[in-house]
Each structure stands twice: as structure tokens, then as C-alpha cells.
Amino acid sequence: MAATGFAQWGNDLYTGRTSYDIVGRRRTWYAVALVIVALSAVLLLVKGLNPGIEFRGGSQFTVSGVQTTDQQPAIDAVGEVSAAEVPRVTTVGGDSIRVQTAELDSEEVVEVRESLAAAYGVSEDDVTSAFIGPSWGADVSSKAITGLVVFLALVAVVMTLYFRAWRMAAAALLALGHDLVITVGIYALIGWEVTPATVIGFLTILGYSLYDTVVVFDKVRENTTGVFTQHRSTYPEQANLAVNQTLVRSINTSVVAVLPVAAILFVGAFLLGAGTLRDIALALFVGMIVGTFSSVFLATPLLVSLRNREGRIAQHTAEVLEARGEAPAPTGAGDDPQAQPVGAGAAPSAKVVPGQHLGTAAQPRRRRGPKR
Questions:
Q1: Whole-angstrom distance, CA of residue 217 vs CA of residue 63
Q2: Which residue from 127, 66, 129 is spatially nearest to 100, judged by alpha carbons?
Q3: pLDDT for the residue 279
């Protein structure tokens, strides 16, 4: 029964019988997004990110086959060798301990290995060590930034060419920036380490969010083709209809994607301990949820805000509202001579209640081709 109701709800959204005024309430969504982005920025400035050893460099020890995963013996063992050192100790799986320190010389590495082996009652062969130089982390950071810039540049070019509208590319990039800042802010709030796997997760969520946005924009383009040839609905109303028509698809896609990622996050964080799974899963989990929000509540409203600045769009909207008896048509410098005026033979549109449509009557009419 619930499935039937959900299917009916989705059908009503597509036909326009049920509609949510997402575009009309865009200032609300802008305010929500700005508050969350501002909080994320404050977290980044105050707490900052916790870079992993791959970025900051240092020595790393892994103790395998331990009988206890208590972290205090590892802290005490490192303190016996270097009292000023404050190691980062994490549990890996159910029988391993990972200890990260600043750069140690060869003698200190040997002493720490012996001390860790004695602290956990294992042989020295069960304690492995590795050194990661900071130059490697700097190289990873540089390539990550380069990859991000190239990705965004390609997105702008491809979307502009595909939709033949730079405003769609601009709206999509603003939504992507929103997703990235909030996801990074969550990492600053939780304090988990940022590793190369985390960076991969950041880039992945951008692709996911962009895919969802392109689907919505494609429906917006379909609905608004020939919008100036009719005076039953405005460009913002047809864009809002497109968001409603793709709403169920966005929800379904998000649920299908988030559930397995949530399972991976649970396994990585609580069963296997810190590791690559946890690092990438948190970025994907947060990014997918935020990306769904931006695709539905930000991308298309931003597009409408940008397009409302066009004289032709503004004049057509005013003419439709005038035909309904809601507002006078614009006059003066804002008029666009290419816009279609409401002629003497044009039938006035029925008044549209905000957040509602006229069912199938709200669908854009298609010009019929010549009969063959």
C-alpha cells in the first residue's frame, strides 16, 4: 500500500497535480545554504583539518597480533623514547594498533619498535615501521588541487556547450562549491584525518552531485523549450515543475547510493577501525546527502535567479502575470523587443496558486509537426 501511495505521489508530481514551490521559495534555501556554508567555513578556520601522515610526513608503526587494543601502552612506549612526542594512536581492525609520530631518526625508530613490542607482548617482527616524507604529501596536495581545478574547468566548458547556456554551468558550479565546503567542514568538525582516500572521496561526490544536477537541468531545458510562445506559465514555474518531476528520481537515487555507503562507513569506522574504507566512506556519505540537497534546492533556483536577470525572461513573466491580473507588464528600458507580447487574441491564463500547478494543463504545449 505504501509503495502504491509513493508511486501515485511520484505520478502526481510528474503531471503537476501535486507540486512544491521549491523555486518560488528559493530565498529560504539560499539562507539555509549560506548558514551551513558559513558554519563550515568557521570550523575550517577555527579547528582546521586534521591532515594524515601522508600530508604532514613522519614515522608510522603498525603493531599486529595484539591481545588488547588499548591505546595507552603505545603512548607510554613512545614517551619512553621521546618525552616531547605526542603520538597519534588508532585501532586498525580487531588486533592491530597504528602509531604515528613526527620524523624520528634511525636510532629512535629502533627504540620505539622495541618499546612497542614489549608494551603489547609481541615480537619485534610484528612491529613494522615506515617513513613518509612531507614532500610526498605536498605533491599529493598539489595534484589534488590541480585535479579539482581541471575538473571544474571541464565541467564549465562541457555544460555550457551541452546546454548552450553559461548560466546553467554557473549554477552547477555554485552548487558544487556548496557541496565541497560543507563536506570539508564536516571533516573539520569530526576531526578525522584527511588522507589521499578522503581527497578521492571529495572528487567523487562532485561527480555524483553534478550527475544529479544535469538530470534536473535537462528536464528544465525540456520544459522551457518554446516558453516564449505561450502565456500560460512563466519560466520559473516551468523550471519548478521540472524539479518536481525529477524529485522522486533524486530521492530514489540518493537512497540507493547512500545505504551501501552507510554500511561501508559503519564497517570501516566501528568494525575495522581507521583505514581507507572509513576515510572515503565519510566523504561519500556526507557528500551524497549534501549533493542531493543542492541538486534539488539550489541548482535550479540559482539558475532561475540568473535567468530572471534577462530582459526577455523578465518581460515574459510580467506579461503572464498581467494576463492573470496579478501584475502589469514591464515598460521602458527593461522591455525586450524579441519577447512575445500578449496579443488581443491571447486567452488570459488562470491564476496559479503558489506551489501548485494546473495538473496536465501546466505542461508546456508542444508544437505539432506537419502530418505525414
A1: 52
A2: 129
A3: 76
- Residue 270 CB coordination number (10 Å): 9
Q: What is the CATH number of the domain that holds 202?
A: 1.20.1640.10
What φ, ψ does residue 205 adopt, rounded to 5°?
A: -70, -30
Mapped onto helix, strand or coil, the DSSP state of residue 360 is: helix
SS3 57: coil
Over residues 188-197, mean pLDDT: 84
Q: How does the average pLDDT of the chain come out, rounded?
A: 80
Q: Are residues 77 and 151 in the same domain?
A: no
Judging by DSSP bridges, how do beta strands 58-64 and 88-92 pair with one another?
Answer: unpaired
The Cα–Cα gap between 111 and 107 comes to: 6
Give 298's pLDDT tier (boundaries 50, 70, 90): very high
CA distance 252 to 263: 17
Q: Are 98 and 60 in contact (CB under 8 A)?
A: yes
Q: Which three cell numbers stand for residue 175?
A: 552548487
CA distance 16 to 27: 23
Q: How many separate domains does the chain show?
A: 2
Instruction: Determine which helix (DSSP H) or strand (DSSP E) holds 314, and give its type and residue range.
Output: helix 311-323
- Between CA 213 and CA 127 the distance in angstroms is 48
Instruction: Decide if 355 contacts 20 (C-beta within 8 A).
Output: yes
Q: Which CATH number covers residue 94?
A: 3.30.70.3400
Determine the pLDDT at residue 220: 93
Rounded to the nearest 5°, which phi and psi values hold at 85? -85, 135
The answer to whether the beta carbons of residues 176 and 204 sit under 8 Å apart is: no
